[in-house]
Amino acid sequence: METRELELGFLALPRERPAPGVVMIPDVWGLSDHARDLARRLAGEGFAVLAIDLYTREQPSIATPAEALQWIRELSDPQVLGDLQRGIDLLAADPAVAGRKLGISGFCMGGQYALLAACGCRGLSACAPFYGMLSYADDLDPAKKPRSPLEALPDLGCPVLGLYGREDHLIPLDQVSELEAGLAKSPHGGEVVLYPGAGHAFMNDTRPEMYRAEAAADAWPRLVAFLRERLA
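Request: output the structure for the sequence above.
Response:
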């Protein structure tokens, strides 16, 4: 496996190339060792992975979950989607991908933006959000938050595999049901998997209080199989 640090993030490449590409969006804590580990794991499954760094302009000072939520509320979606399009274009042009299909995945805040990217960015053939927030509060700045992921669903451009915890206090189950209904109406379709006993960040094995081994063990091969099918 080959890895590179880029201006836009961390690139992990499989041994056999060209390979389908995946833009991976980390959670609100940014391009951490955990995010790099997930990128390496996915590269080990045969994908060229760009774990994108959304904090190249400004590194937030986040110490608590409340501060993390406030940061997400104030982050400019158009700016983030512009950065994601740059990442998609960069990965598509890399010789390691060489014209193969691209997908996008993300965790927490990254799952939120993965779904928005699937509805607003070019060049994607699959989207796999992990527990990304689906709806926005009414009091947010419309210039920074023009539409929530659920509101963007009519513009969905590729199939979706959504992976959520049934006990996620940040994402109400009625919103997950609304996502399922929206995917059922889309010509691209998709699937939502809900994990009993799992809450937010159930994939993050660096946070023992959040990690759920059984859910993570099921979700990862689902992700790999979905990407292999859709990016073949």
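The two ends are 20 Å apart (CA to CA).
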